[in-house]
Amino acid sequence: MPKIEIKRASENINLFRNYKLYLDGKKLGTIAVGEIQEFDVTSGEHKLMAKIDWCSSPEISFTVNENETKYFLVKSFSDSVLFTPFSTPYYITFGRNKYLKLKEI
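Above: the chain sequence. Below: its structure as tokens.
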């Protein structure tokens, strides 16, 4: 059976808050800081997104085949080269769909 494994980075921002994970627009589960979650999925094309409150990651598309595992990493915007304490208002307003970073690894 195909699987996806999602790792949440260990970081201080949102330390005590879980991120919600969505697969194809439906809630898949939650993930805490430093945690790794594994989910069974159907083979084929999917869209994955992470959310916290009104902020989210961009939705990413991927294809998974039978008996394959895809690996993803989710983290906050705070490791960005452009991050300063003054950039937070941008990420919770205009950049709210980039507040979280989600990538295949």
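Residues 3-104 form a domain with the Immunoglobulin-like fold (CATH 2.60.40.1120).
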